[in-house]
Fold this protein.
Amino acid sequence: VAAELLAAGPEWFWQTGHASLSGRGGTLSALLDSLKGSIGLAGYHRGEQDTPITIDAQQTDAEDSFDLQAISARVGSGTLTGSAAVSRRGEGRKLTLRAQGDNIDVSFLVAADEDVALPGITVPEYLGLLPELELDVSVQIANLKAPGVSLARAEAEFLRNDSAASLKAPGAGETGGDIG
């Protein structure tokens, strides 16, 4: 999972990082579950302009789970906070992510020469994100910006297991109006 997220492409450039972790276990799984300490990354996204990104988190030693608590991230001038955990679910694993943000502008993820997307979702590519994991993701953002979009409030809840998926994404415009 980490390899997919960290090797997201040549436009993501991680310059510095730190980790101070301790743990012990007779198996790799037991060792990962016992880790505790702090981790951090800093770098930027190379797009039309370089967008600085920093991420810091505390690793806890939860049983049967890889937990990151007190996640704090800066994306450009915006902030994100929250928690993430990968836990065992029978034979598989489940990613649970809770995040809150403010002043997030994701325009840097869209190249200026890309066509503006038409309304609606033509192909739900998000259904294939991290296919080996069950997903339970909840995000709440105040002041979200993207090309052609400016929301005072945006929320998203994405649930997926091996038999079904759902995405709910209500929001409120800066000048009024609700969606979702």
Q: What stands out?
A: The helical segments are 2-6, 28-34.
